[in-house]
Amino acid sequence: MLDLKAHIRTIPDYPKPGILFYDIGALLAHGQAWRETIVRLGDIVRPLHPDILIGIESRGFLVGAALAAHLGLGFVMVRKKGKLPGKTLALSYALEYGKDTIEIQEGILKPGSRAVLCDDLLATGGTASAAVTLARQAGAELIHAVFVIELDFLNGRTRMDVPVTSLLHADR
Predict the structure, then answer these.
(1) What are phi and psi of 19, to 5 degrees?
(2) What are the start-end ranges of the E strands in the chain?
(3) Is 79 a catalytic residue?
(4) Per-residue pLDDT tens for 120-167?
(5) Given 40, 59, 79, 157, which residue is catalytic?
(6) Which of 38, 44, 155, 163 is most buried as measured by Cβ atoms within 10 A of its Cβ?
(7) For the chain, which residues score pLDDT lower than 50?
(8) What does pTM read for this prediction?
(9) Is residue 57 flagged as an active site residue?
């Protein structure tokens, strides 16, 4: 079995001093490791019988779209304000350093659809939690959230009110 963590680079002081950035670029660049990542996530998600997957801009698009294709499911994007065409539903939420707004296209999720949220990384849980709330406002039933990496020391899963599964964990 491949050691996926060996394909995650850590970049100190990015995007600002004191931050240790977990970069999935090397994981994406290694075909066998990326495929194994998607297969493992598929093994988690398949038994949940979702109708649709939802990904958070931007690396959540890579995870969610690949996983949706692997499982034969559709995929819906949650994007930053002003990036989606047509009518959207928006949600503003607080960040550690300010405020942000995310959007989802209106009518893209069928009411009652069983959805799984996908992203590359769970840190503080602010954006992921907001995406769950927004998807619910759009009519979806959020049943789970999956992440490639979880930064356990930031306790992001405590902000999530859906079950969370992460393939890899980091304690700093």
Answers:
(1) -95, 135
(2) 9-12, 20-23, 52-56, 74-80, 88-95, 98-105, 114-122, 141-151, 164-170
(3) no
(4) 999 999 999 999 999 999 999 999 999 999 999 999 999 999 999 999
(5) 59
(6) 38
(7) none
(8) 0.96
(9) no
